[in-house]
Design brief:
Blueprint: E1 9-13, H1 19-32, E2 37-42, H2 49-55, E3 61-66, H3 78-97, E4 102-106, H4 108-113, H5 119-128, E5 134-138, H6 144-149, E6 152-155
Parallel strand pairs: 1-5, 1-6, 2-3, 2-4, 4-5
Bound molecules: adenosine-5'-triphosphate and magnesium ion.
Magnesium ion (MG) binds at residues 19-20, 107, 138.
Amino acid sequence: MQKETRCFVQVYTGNGKGKTTAALGLTLRAVGAGWIVLFVQFLKQGEYSEIKALKRLGGQVKICQYGSGEFVRGRPSEKEVASAQRGLNEVIEAMETKKYDLIILDEINVAMHFGLIPVESVIALLERRPPDVEMVLTGRWVPKEIAERADLVTEMRMIKHYFSKGILARTGIER
Ligand code: ATP
Ligand code: MG
């Protein structure tokens, strides 16, 4: 669609809660404006509540997940790396179709941090971004080369988190 707005690259990073939530909020707003959204999740796999909700939005949101579902600690498995790299290639292809107005790359910062995706490949992706595509990268530990190239960087900083009280991800709130 023809947009009156200019498009930028946004990053949501930091150790506080709200990064994926922010990306979902932007998705909702974009859908309301008639935009077509590609919502990509790296590292994650499964029908989280947000995925169920996004599916209800119909053809305006396409969802892709490129995680093996195994948590990455230290050295990622070959399967995890292959899946993330396939994800990145598919995002490049999707971006170049110009079908999407907003592309969310959820947890891509973490995928770069653990070496699943080379930072240079994401830089190349950002350089090829058409000017009418908004791109959002989420996840802790954004590489500084990416933050430098983004137009907006917000750091969610943890002041308090109930995780420290042993409260793990809750359905409806964190997943
Ligand atoms: P949300 O999806 O709620 O917006 P987020 O995207 O900002 O959160 P992630 O870094 O993706 O947060 O965190 C994923 C999971 O890690 C959360 O579901 C939560 O249970 C856990 N978590 C979040 N913050 C912390 C923290 N400060 N310390 C430990 N674990 C955390
Ligand atoms: Mg997240």
